[in-house]
Amino acid sequence: MATERVFIxxxxxxxxxxxxxxxxxQKLGSHPSVENGKKGIFFAVWAPNAxxxxxxxxxxxxxDTMHPMHRQGEMGIFTLFVPGLGEGELYKYxxxxxxxxxxxxxDPYANWAELRPGTASRTVDLSDFKWSxxxxxxxxxxxxxxxxPLAIYECQIGSWMKHPDGTEDGFYNYRxxxxxxxxxxxxxxxxxxxxxxxxxxPFDGSWGYQVTGYYxxxxxxxxxxxxxxxxxxxxKNGIGVILDWVPAHFCPDEHxxxxxxxxxxxxxxxxxxxxxxxxxxxxxNFERNEVRNFLIANALFWIRQFHIDGLxxxxxxxMLYLDYGKQAGQWVPNKNGGNExxxxxxxxxxxNSVVRGTYPQILMIAEESTAWPNISGPIGGDGLGxxxxxxxxxxxxxxxxxxxxxxxxxxxxxxxxxxxxYNGAEQYILPLSHDEVVHLKCSMVQKMPGYEVDKYxxxxxxxxxxxxxxGKKLLFMGQDFGxxxxxxxxxxxxxxxxxxxxxxxxxxxxxxxxxxxRDYPAMYKxxxxxxxxxxINADDKDRSxxxxxxxxxxxxxxxxxxxxxxxxxxxxxKTGVPAGxxxxxxxxxxxxxxxxxxxxxxxKIKAVQENCDYLDYSLTMDxxxxxxxxxxxxxxxxxxxxxxxxxxxxxxxxTVAxxxxxxxxxxxxxxVxxxxxxxKTx
Length: 682
What we know:
With 682 residues, this protein is α/β, with parallel strands linked by helices. The protein has an eight-stranded parallel barrel. A six-stranded antiparallel sheet has the order 21-22-23-28-25-26. A four-stranded antiparallel sheet has the order 1-2-5-4, with no helix packed on it.
């Protein structure tokens, strides 16, 4: 429990009114406090248009007159200290409007909530959790985050795996989930996990994208301290944590932010600005300082209180465009007559300048689906200041190409090459997210053409293209072992598929792709522009073969990709290469252990000095059907030109001990194992 008094000063009110009180969550909400030597809970809520506010809860039998709050100052903040209260108390605010309407509202700044279908808030003390993840943060000090590997596992806790306890929901507690997910992520060698739907929300089917409790980890999986345990354990095992964050809109449920004090203080009062007609949700009023403060402080809250490593900002495009998802008459142009949301633009610049200016290693990731420029550009001009942008154009082209029958792929060859033409425009993440495997879009493996064995072979070569392509990586859960059904939040992943050879092979193959990605800096150090990516042949549309290589600027351990997107074997396939010497064959998707058709590509190939693809050297191989062949090689260094020097007596030679050549670390082969057997649940 806190040992000091919590109160709201005039300075607090002033900064909140200016939109710059970045730790307002320490004042508004419910907090352990001490007054006149008595421990209790301090309550504070912003309700500027309320006639009166009362705190009601279990502690007063929901009596609507026992605990009136006191209005202080002109900001419309109501406060009350209730002695004798501790953690776990259920409560709401009873707000009476000037018209006499009575509204029972959950606390917008509460850190814990009642398990749905209940809608009350709970008191909690976040100050006494013992963190032990200091080494994780020390690892990133002084490093360029753009030159670090980033391979994200997107995950929804409630449907990753169901608990065998026989309960209706079958949810794992945050702590139990931590123990299972850490083993899986380490085995597969992901660098980060991105968690969907952590902020409190009433409806499971919204996946957490219609929020009522922005400051509370959902009670579906336990307490806030249970969630802290999850983050702490992930960090101690070298895994970063990214949360989906939803400032674009909020849930219209009556206990939430909508019409909070009887008027529109969080949403814009004009429905043309304050509502999404397609989604049935409310839009935050970015014109209001207190609303911008609520959201910016919320981003900092997750970083400071829960040690989160990044936020993936949902539906950015819906915020940038005033007419997003709207017809004529449903939106209002800006002061210049355009459809740009100038207040949302200012909000993003403010948000990212504060978050990234304070915590430069934090990842701020925009899910933005249009060609809006400079999403990840620096603030100061047109840039919005995000660390990364999801490359939705790459995702769309990739999925559409992969769905094609191979005979049609030659005519769509450009769909896999186009993204590199604009790769320097932003700092990109290549996402294959949950959105691509729902709403009758099919799972990733079921998008593929052909017989079952062809589908898996297609997906292996497709994933290899993704991991070789410039840009950081994101896969949704289940995609790495070939989940065949579409994802549903109501059931767990189909782990039983790992009893089958094709799915075990897919999981092992993706594990080796992740190991390759982590072990070779050429795969991730230079993802922007063409500094780390070079096409060898981007035009072989007749055979639907793509070849390119990745490099990190050292000339060492470059990675060559030769990818065949057809069921044809190309005998004696010749590809140009940038250097002579030996090419070490490190990954082959056609191996039978992965479910492939078999291969005859040798483990080492010597480049010959023969012109091919406008390069001086070439490799020749029999390229198997649907094959991804990956090689590691060193670029040759040109000898410096010799200068004429005057003859002189040579100096006596010194004996110098030669260092042994550095060995390339062996790619770690992740163990393939099925998660522990589970009892069936209803």
